[in-house]
UniProtKB/TrEMBL annotation:
SUPFAM superfamilies: PLP-dependent transferases (SSF53383), Winged helix' DNA-binding domain (SSF46785). InterPro entries: Aminotransferase_I/II_large, HTH_trans_reg/aminotransferase, PyrdxlP-dep_Trfase, PyrdxlP-dep_Trfase_major, PyrdxlP-dep_Trfase_small, Tscrpt_reg_HTH_GntR, WH-like_DNA-bd_sf, WH_DNA-bd_sf. The lineage of its organism: Bacteria, Pseudomonadati, Pseudomonadota, Alphaproteobacteria, Rhodospirillales. This is Transcriptional regulator, GntR family. Residues 93-104 have a biased composition (Low complexity). Residues 13-81 form the HTH gntR-type domain.
C-alpha cells in the first residue's frame, strides 16, 4: 500500500472533491502508477486530519471518474483515467486484436476481481425498449410511487422468468421485486432476523453478505464446505449449538468456489433446516447457467426465501432483483422492502418485463451462456491442470494455488504481471482460516482476447515458484 498523501494547497471547493482532484492530477502526472494500492479510508483521513466520511466521498467521486476501483476485502487501486467504454459484442474483437475501454491496451491492468458480464444484445435492445416505453402511455405508472412489492404485471413477468430460466416454483403473488440481489438479501434477512441474531453462511461466502452482516449487526457464523457445498453434519451441529435464525447459501455455482451442490445434498440441507426451524435464504443469481440444478426452494418452498436478480444474466445496471417468499413470510418481506427502499424502481422492471415477454431476455441469456462456457474452456486450456476448481458453467473460477505459493504472494505477483484477482481471505467468514486460493472473474475483461491475456499471466505466475519464495526470510 502506498503512502500517498495528496497536496491540497491552493485548491477550492468541497473537500471531498478537492481530494479527488488531487488524486486525478497525481495519476495524470505519473506520481501514482496504474495498479497502485491507495491508503485505506481511515489511514488517509488520519494523515489529512479529516473525517473518514470525507475520504469515502472522495474515493467514491474518483471511482465515478474511472480513476480507481476495488473490492471489499482487497483494497482500492489506481486504474487511470479512461475514456467512456464503447459496448462491444461478447467475444469481440477476435483473438489477436485488442479491445478498448476498461482493459484496453496490452499494458493495461486486466481486472478479474468481479463477475461483470457484458451484453451486446442488451445494449442494442435497451435503446429500442426505452423508445417503445416512451410512446406507450405508461409514464404515469412508471415514474410515480408504485406498490411496495412491484407492479402486478412486472411480478407476473418475473414469475414466468424465474420458472423458465431458474426452475423456481413462483406465482405473481409470491414474487416481490427489489433493487438487485444484494438488496433482495438485505430484505430477506430483515424479514426474519434482528441485529445480534445468528445467521449461518458457507465458510467462504459472498463478500456482499459479509458487508451486510457487519453493517446490520447480524452475527455471521461460517459453516464448513466441501466439494459439494455446505457440509450437512457441520450445518446440523451449528444449528444445534447456535440457534440461528437463517442460513444463507449459494447452492448453484457457489461464490467463490463455483461448486454446484448435488440434489441429494440439497434435500439433506433442507431436512436439517426444517428440523431446527431455520429459514433457508437461497441465492440463485447464477442458476440460469445450470438448467438441471433444481433450487432448494422447490424442495422446501415453505421455509425458503429465494433471492435472485438479472445482474448476471441480463444486465447488472438494471438493478432488478427478486424475493420469492412463502405465504407466511410475504407480509414481513413487503414490510422490509417498504422500510429499506419503499419500492423497486418501476422503469428497470418495465424494461425487463418487456424483454421477458418478447423473447429478448432469452436471447441475452443464450448469448451469455455461450460466452461463459467459451471463457471457461479458454481458462482450462491455459491454466495448469489441477489448479482450476469448480463447475465449468460458472462465470468465475476458483484457482487453488500449488506449493509453495501463498495467496498474498501470488496476488502480488499477479498484480506485478498486470492482473488483479481476489484472494480467498476476502470471502472467509469471521476468523476462519482461508485456503491458499484466489477467485478469478472470467467475464469482466471486455473480450476473450483480454481474458486470455490475463489467464496467460496467471499461468506464467504459477510457473514461477521462485517468486513465491521472495517474501520468505
Amino acid at each position: 500500500m502506498t503512502n500517498w498523501t495528496p497536496n491540497l494547497e491552493g485548491r477550492a471547493g468541497p473537500l471531498y472533491r478537492v481530494i479527488a482532484d488531487a488524486l486525478a492530477d497525481d495519476i495524470a502526472e505519473g506520481a501514482l502508477a496504474v495498479g497502485t494500492r491507495l491508503p485505506t479510508h481511515r489511514d488517509l483521513a488520519f494523515r489529512l486530519g479529516v473525517t473518514v466520511g470525507t475520504v469515502t466521498r472522495a474515493y467514491t467521486e474518483a471511482e465515478k471518474r474511472g480513476l480507481i476501483g476495488g473490492e471489499v476485502g482487497r483494497g482500492t487501486f489506481v486504474q487511470g483515467q479512461r475514456p467512456p467504454a464503447t459496448p462491444l459484442p461478447l467475444g469481440w474483437p477476435p483473438a489477436g486484436e485488442t479491445s478498448a475501454g476498461e482493459t484496453g491496451s496490452g499494458s493495461a491492468i486486466v481486472n478479474m476481481t468481479t463477475v461483470h458480464p457484458e451484453h451486446a444484445v442488451a445494449v442494442q435492445a435497451f435503446g429500442q425498449t426505452l423508445v417503445a416505453i416512451g410512446t406507450s402511455g405508461r409514464a404515469a405508472a412508471l415514474i410515480g410511487y408504485g406498490p411496495h412489492a412491484g407492479l402486478p404485471d412486472h411480478r407476473t413477468a418475473a414469475a414466468a422468468w424465474l420458472e423458465r430460466q431458474h426452475r423456481v416454483q413462483a406465482t405473481a403473488d409470491s414474487v416481490l421485486l427489489t433493487t438487485g440481489a444484494q438488496n433482495a438479501l438485505a430484505v430477506a434477512l430483515a424479514a426474519v432476523a434482528r441485529p445480534g441474531d445468528v445467521i449461518l453462511a458457507e465458510r467462504l461466502t459472498n463478500i456482499g453478505t459479509k458487508a451486510l452482516a457487519a453493517t446490520q449487526g447480524y452475527h455471521l457464523e461460517g459453516v464448513a464446505i466441501d466439494e459439494h457445498g455446505l457440509v450437512p453434519d457441520a450445518f446440523d451441529s451449528a444449528c444445534r449449538r447456535l440457534g440461528p435464525k437463517a442460513v444463507y447459501l449459494v447452492p448453484t455455482l457457489q461464490n467463490p468456489t463455483a461448486v454446484v451442490m448435488p440434489a441429494a445434498r440439497r434435500r439433506e440441507i433442507a431436512e436439517i433446516a426444517r428440523r431446527y426451524g431455520v429459514i433457508l435464504i437461497e441465492d440463485d443469481v447464477f442458476g440460469f447457467m445450470v438448467p438441471d440444478a433444481r433450487p432448494i426452494q422447490t424442495i422446501a418452498p415453505d421455509i425458503t426465501l429465494y433471492v435472485s436478480s438479472v445482474s448476471k444474466s441480463l444486465a447488472a445496471g438494471l438493478r432488478l432483483g427478486f424475493v420469492v417468499a412463502p405465504a407466511e413470510l410475504r407480509s414481513r418481506v413487503e414490510t422490509a422492502i417498504r422500510a429499506l427502499q419503499y419500492s423497486a424502481p418501476a422503469l428497470p422492471a418495465e424494461v425487463v418485463a418487456r424483454w421477458i415477454q418478447d423473447g429478448t431476455a432469452d436471447r441475452i441469456v443464450a448469448t451469455q451462456r455461450e460466452e461463459d462456457l467459451a471463457r471457461q474452456r479458454l481458462a482450462r486450456s491455459i491454466l495448469p491442470a489441477g489448479t482450476v476448481y469448480g463447475s465449468s458453467a460458472a462465470q468465475h473460477l476458483w484457482l487453488v494455488l500449488p506449493e509453495p505459493w501463498r495467496r498474498e504472494d501470488f496476488i502480488g505477483e499477479a498484480r506485478r504481471r498486470g492482473v488483479i484477482v481476489t484472494g480467498a481471505d476476502a470471502f472467509a467468514v469471521g476468523r476462519a482460516s482461508a485456503p491458499h486460493a484466489v477467485r478469478v472473474g472470467l467475464c469482466m475483461p471486455r473480450s476473450r482476447d483480454e481474458a486470455a491475456r490475463g489467464l496467460r499471466a496467471l499461468a506464467d505466475a504459477l510457473d514461477a515458484p521462485a517468486a513465491a519464495m521472495l517474501s520468505i526470510v
